[in-house]
């Protein structure tokens, strides 16, 4: 048996020189492994006790979580860091705006830049695997972890997720999560999501596949929840879609984290490759299962070679890749990028000529406890411990030519008096990690004990271990101030925030700017919507949030965002999903699709945003008929406003005469324009696809767009009354998901 610590690196060099294929190299390397080493590849490298000690001493993901490292042959293993708003390793990473905020940029090029920066920081800090590409679609916008994904539309999610993947892959392996139908937080360990095949393929899986095909992602992470009666990590039908229907045999699937693998035999046979992050079920069970022939060595071999192929291909790619300097994490270039993204992700919902503010000696009253906060989102696995976070108040006070006064807002009488004296009132309200985010308290000891089958004969001991682990992790987070989270209870603001806004708007509405920190839609009181001079959804803006806010308010940057979700008038207009249920059904109607079905109108539609320009759509050009899956639309736009600005041209399509049970229109393409001076015209090319109009045919594993007349609408937002609409014939178009269909 060979015993070379450089064998792995030798094979990497051969692959980089194109003298051997990664698959063949993986077979050669695998043949040098002992039986124990072959099993070692299939889970994390440390045990539960060591993990808990590390967590107490260092916090979450201070160092890479390693799986399958074999020093004897130089195999580095998977070196994991979580996401998706940056890199946690060593507490040195840049805290970028949350994914939900970045989604509001509608800018794939900018998201790819974020991916490059994250990948570079990860590599510089010793990681190689970024599990931060979250593309889950939440039918109910109350989902606690909505801040980790890209909104409510599959095409928007897939396009931006693919861009992040492309960026990350310049320096690291990109992992897309959580596969699949994971969009409830409180009951994520227990809930079974029922979804029929057509709805799953048409609505809840396209963005995953888009990240694989168009982004080039090498890995997926499974989910805690069950799908159609089987846990996602053990689900042969679900993983069969990846391996067989999509033909993605080389993609490595890792488990969702602690206790994400429930059944070792099922998970191996289903095609889940790595149990993360601990030596847990598989370490105890697989030797026995192999002896009993419940699992075969050929199953282990298939998984092991797949893992090695991914690692070899990655390191071969890095031979010619740009370097990741040691000073990359948290560098000025990345902080400046975070500031740019934060500004472009802010969505201006209303502006009665109060923005941008002219810094000419005005007295500005800043109100609200969030003004002094350095939060960057929730306190769960996506938290990035960035020490450079600029609070809103700190950022605003750095603006010259103005006077800033601050009140926390708890004394409403004082707020009303000071608001009347001020020239501008800036009220900052919204949520914190206590209101929404990852929810650690849902680690149910009884449910988790069931995932430790090696202790099945000792259920009391198993439950005690899980209860202790939950208690320790919870206590550490409590001490660190990382408590709360979970699914939102309401789409309204906290009662105190609503009272504060009502008080301010009543006495100073025409000079009041309202900014809202949230991962998703917020229903504002009618008095505030009508009475405030300006309203802005800022999201969670990352480490440079305060500086980005200052630049936006004073016109040095534009709030160029567009909503990645619909803001409804009433919670009656969102999908009826009980976020505390243990069994739910997902259908094809949520968000703007549900609003269309009900014949309602949103308070602020999906895709809406004002910016500092005033754009009109002048002309639409496309083919006279369509018989291909991909097509181009050219739209002439004009900036009729007073400021240089950009817009997002959105193309929606639907049947000219839809059935009552069908969507009127869905997003089929979008493109952000360049910044256009006042009075100027330009033409924007939008690359579109028929995918959102297609229906899944299970018998043939094909998508099909039926022949007929379709409306193609160039819009500024969903349901735009001033959209330019053309009705054109579409021929029947079919395609199989195994074909190469990279969107170029």
UniProtKB/TrEMBL annotation:
Alphabetically ordered keywords of this record: Glycosidase, Hydrolase
Signal peptide limits: none
EC code: 3.2.1.21
All residue ranges annotated as the Fibronectin type III-like domain in the record: 647-718
UniProt cross-references to Pfam families, sorted A to Z: Fn3-like (PF14310), Glyco_hydro_3 (PF00933), Glyco_hydro_3_C (PF01915)
GO biological process, one term: glucan catabolic process
Annotated GO MF terms: beta-glucosidase activity
Sections of the chain in a coiled coil: none
Known catalytic reactions: Hydrolysis of terminal, non-reducing beta-D-glucosyl residues with release of beta-D-glucose
Annotated family: Belongs to the glycosyl hydrolase 3 family.
Protein name as catalogued: beta-glucosidase
Organism: Naganishia liquefaciens
